[in-house]
Specification:
With 398 residues, the chain is of the alpha+beta class. It contains 11 helices and 13 strands. It folds into 3 domains: 5-54 and 292-383, no CATH class; 81-179, no CATH class; 187-284, no CATH class. Strands 1, 2, 7, 12 and 13 form a 5-stranded antiparallel sheet that branches. Strands 3-4 form a two-stranded antiparallel ribbon. It is globular. The two termini are 23 Å apart. Mean pLDDT is 76; it is low at 129-141 and 226-254.
């Protein structure tokens, strides 16, 4: 893995990561957009691998990557649908206008954004239809009606158990609604179904994490009944209906479980799959685990091995404000090499309950600015997969 450094001194290390993303064998760069949904584990790993010159020389590894990528797309799609539904619920959108509002949200948050990324001319054509009632964009975004039905189903399911819902504006309350939806069907079964199929396919390719029978128990917890799906994100052998304990993959009767027990077991299975798919992704890109316990050890790893991935409570999601330019005691903006450093001051972090908050965010550590006389004023420099990066523009080191 090639390593290049913008700064490499006794107290400062900054690894060079080019702006944008590599898209061809000729190392051409194009815009790198922020991660979709809760998929930092995929985007940060892929971004680091591509930025440091990784190539898929083994066809099997490429197949494994494509399977993992397909799962990531499904998760991103479901997360986007849930977030739109949570936003409509938070706005206390009238039932008779749910479909209309869902259509507008999908066009702006998923369809239009995706169109802009893929084809600027298509995005220009889409603009007139975002607020109007014309149907031209429906023909271009084939999954639109299916997506609308999915959003409406999530909205109705929430309101079934929360008929007293009122309008809210706080971001944390919207996230709480989204988390409620993710903790139940249809989200759980849709994602777990894709996880089982991904695990089975990876095991056939010699997975280091998934055995042939890993999906046996989780499959008995999947219950999909005529739920809308995104056709280009599913496997061709997908069964149209899977009923708890009666699917063709079931090898023994399913235990009699309450709804709450099923939810808890699905959550546990998805948690286990999430841990395995993260490690599988690292294996596909041939990345090895490493550890450090202090700034000096981290500096040595960066000097000898290059950038590294680090999961934890890092990034703007865990702070009360966006990252801002950091300043020295004399008031000047802190720099490293040619870069201005952005970050947070002490006291700007959110108050986290570490016993209940298990949502980790994976970042790419690219440098450290070590202050041996006052270690508390040292800074770890990282790239957040949530941030956009454009060719020719300096990345925002945080």
């Amino acid at each position: 893995m090639p390593k290049f450094y913008e700064v490499n001194t006794d107290t400062e290390v900054l690894c060079y990561i080019p702006s944008g993303k590599v898209t061809t064998e000729d190392d051409e760069q194009e815009a790198q957009f922020g991660q979709d949904g809760d998929t930092c584990w995929f985007h940060s790993t892929k971004r680091l691998a591509k930025a440091t010159g990784y190539r898929f020389d083994d066809p099997t590894r490429l197949q494994q990557y494509e399977l993992i990528s397909t799962f990531r797309k499904t998760q991103s799609y479901l997360d986007a649908i849930v977030l739109i539904a949570a936003s409509l619920i938070a706005e206390n959108c009238p039932r008779e206008r749910t479909e209309q509002h869902a259509r507008a949200c999908i066009l702006t948050q998923t369809g239009l954004v995706a169109a802009h990324r893929a084809n600027f001319k298509l995005a220009q054509k889409a603009m007139p239809y975002v607020t109007g009632e014309q149907r031209g964009l429906v023909r271009q975004l084939k999954s639109l009606e299916s997506d609308i039905r999915a959003v409406c189903e999530y909205v109705e399911r929430y309101r079934k158990y929360h008929p007293e819902a009122t309008k809210v504006h706080d971001k944390s309350e919207i996230e709480a609604i989204a988390n409620w939806l993710k903790a139940r069907n249809p989200y759980q079964s849709q994602l777990l179904d894709c996880a089982c199929r991904t695990a089975d396919a990876l095991s056939e390719l010699g997975s280091v994490e998934f055995t042939q029978d890993w999906s046996q128990e989780p499959r008995q917890l999947v219950q999909l009944i005529n739920l809308p799906t995104k056709p280009d994100l599913v496997f061709t052998e997908r069964p149209s209906v899977i009923v708890l304990g009666a699917g063709p993959e079931s090898t023994r009767p399913a235990p009699e479980l309450t709804v709450q027990q099923k939810q808890a077991r699905r959550k546990l299975a998805l948690t286990e799959f999430n841990q395995k798919i993260r490690r599988e992704t690292l294996a596909v890109f041939q990345m090895n685990a490493t550890t450090f316990s202090n700034p000096v050890e981290l500096m040595e790893i960066l000097k000898t091995q290059g950038p590294l991935l680090l999961p934890g409570f890092y990034g703007s999601s865990y702070y009360k404000a966006d990252a801002h330019p950091l300043r020295n005691e004399d008031g000047n903006i802190q720099t490293m090499g040619t870069r201005q450093l952005h970050g947070w001051n002490r006291g700007e972090a959110d108050d986290l309950n570490f016993s209940t908050n298990t949502q980790l965010h994976q970042i790419i550590v690219i440098g450290i600015k070590y202050n041996s006389e006052n270690p508390i004023r040292s800074h770890v420099i990282f790239i957040d997969p949530n941030d956009h990066s454009f060719p020719g523009e300096q990345r925002k080191p945080t």
